[in-house]
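Meet today's protein:

…
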Amino acid sequence: MNALPVHAVLSELRAALADAHIAVLEAPPGAGKTTVVPLALLEESWLNGKKIIMLEPRRLAAKNAARFMAQSLGEATGQTVGYRVRHESRVSDRTRIEVVTEGILVRMLQQDPALEDIALVIFDEFHERSLQADLGLALVLDARDNLRDDLGVLVMSATLEGQRVAALLDDAPVVRTEGQQFPVTTRYASMTADDDLALAAARSAIALMREEEGSLLAFFPGAGEIRRAADWLREHGDAHIDITPLFGDLSPAEQDRAIQPAPSGRRKLVLATNIAESSLTIEGVRLVVDAGLERVPVFDPPSGMTRLVTQRISQASADQRRGRAGRNEPGVCLRLWREADTPRMIAHAPPEMLAADLANLALELAGWGISDPAKLRWLDPPPAASFAQACELLTDLGALDASGRITTDGKAMLALPVHPRLAHMLLRGRAQGQGALATILVAILEERDPLAAIRQSDIELRVRAIVSGDGIARGSRQRLLASAKQLAATLGVARELDAHVKSGTLDMTRAGYLIAEAYPDRIARRRPGQDARYQMAGGRGAFLDAGDSLSQQEWLAVATVSGGGRDARIFLAAELRDEDVAALEAEAGEMVQVTFDAPSGAVVARRVRRVGSLVLEEHPVPVPAGLALPALLKGIRSVGLQRLPWGAQTENLRARVETLRRLEPEAWPACNDASLLATLEEWLAPFAANTRKLAEISPGALHEALLYRMGHERARQLDAQAPETFELPSGQRARIDYSGEIPVLAARIQQFFGLHATPAIANGRLPLSLQLLSPANRPMQLTRDLASFWKNTYPEVRKDLRGRYPKHAWPEDPLTAAPRARSLKARGEKE
């Protein structure tokens, strides 16, 4: 194997891991980290013959990395090196290195929290900051802290805030290497707003290939643009150029074809999403066309829906894409935007954690025994409001009990490799004798719509086509059946599914009921007198395309909708028959619903009659005793702690505790928003037992509640170690501001006369930052070294301010001068 840049730092990396079994590796694209590092570490003595697990963010990258490493050993995949991705694995009893996608690692942790057979977990391409990678790292670190202090952790990335990650990993050593990058010429060709992106990129790609040698990789935001570009290129491109799409929904064979070298005498034009941005080397590519866009899922908390958003990529992604042109030889990158727009791009894409549906993460944490995310270590913690909403959904689905603990149904849902909504559908389907139907529905909802071209929303048409094989592409049917069979095997209904596929028939009358079980907030009722327009349970309007076969149905169970606009477009749905509506109404029944009204900040109660989540009838009633407090606490979690009347004294109390906690994390309770929201029952509930409104909570009650949470002894230590005020040499007391990283003590400079050293808190461990003010109370100097200020800076300050403030004392020696709180005139003195 040719030497790669990462080879130069392998000895340093081995030493770092041998010492503490934890490290960070920064290695740009082309350094060889993905395929060199696992093999280089395999025989390290501290592994004791156990396995190495390496996480890859994408299935194709995982399989390709495993295949490359196996070939370098002269073996088939599945011997020393194997992989495990969803619905596919190549491992054996001999396998020592497993390349897995991130969800697989979390599943392994849930089954064996100590990872007894594993010595080292490698997080590759961590800079992509996927939700599953962040979750996997948090759980691995928790296992290392509490179960396996010998468990090795290596975080690798091409573009990473190394020191920030290292701090999260107990100040782990950071090993850095350069990349292997040939020169890449960057060109720009701006598109106009009227240009069709797919066709503009296709034309640019073929024009560049006619100017330059080699194969080309073009980046598009999604599969739709890729298909349009491919159609145009097959009609207008050159005969010796092979057009090969590359995106997640393609079959493994089609994806493999895209990354293989072009046949002799031919060139290749690969049309890809960001699946090809990292970890993959596509042989022969020295040209890149970058449309500069990506399509990402964004969760919308108010609607509870995830929508795909097309957005500009980050500068880091643009650099990654550009680098694909220089992996093997000098290349050219054509960017389809103005050069002046590059600096305006965000530096790095935000972590998926901050914009994702957290239902699966919340269920995984509940299965891990964690209800408060603050108890784990995160680079970016889950947003409190999104996490609370996820827990509310899981409670509605029966996965969590009222106290947030995982239920028996929740554990069963956790064992199914799908979103909790769909896991609930599978379990309900099995209980109703509809397991086979449920597995096919889930396969359709997880994969690309196989009948999107017919522009009909009825999901029963898809189920019928998959079972019978009529009216559906053979490849699509095989892919969807394979997914359904995997789920059926896990669910224990494989024979049932096989029987229906063999007969080509399946009763689909309960499809709407099963979809409603998964999406009770999307049960929709037709608006009176309006065909094709519906009101969904979650409050949003929805509509069907004109001529849709479901457009006159009274009730629908909606599975997929668009996320934007006032009214959502329905893509996939099923009719809710009269018996389904009756069953759902019987399950929901008539009940008193106690909720928190965010605008008024009050707990309200209504007697409601529902179908699923859709309210048929309601009227207000008094809030029943005992139900107000849980609703109030849930409401606070939904609106955030900023709605509480903290008051300056209580905010300062929180800041004082957080200051000491930075010095002694184990000695002080966290007072940040995430921790306080997660523990409302512990500290706020005893002081809000009879409260119905946020307005009824006083600042004094909040202050008392936090002191109660700390306990008497800790509160006494707080006053001693982080006092609210400091007595100045002048005899006056000045308030200490704890709102920043370093506490600040501000006072006029004359009040510090006679003070030789910088005062400190926390038993002398944390010097204060002194804000020295002019006689007009304007900030003049900020220092944490008062002695140095008196000696080196004060003489110049004295010259400047003596003339501006002649009525105030400016002695030559401030260390022996008497401190003063007032001017000379006010004291009747002369200088």
About this structure: Residues 823-831 have pLDDT under 50 and may be disordered. The CA atoms of residues 78 and 90 lie 5 Å apart.
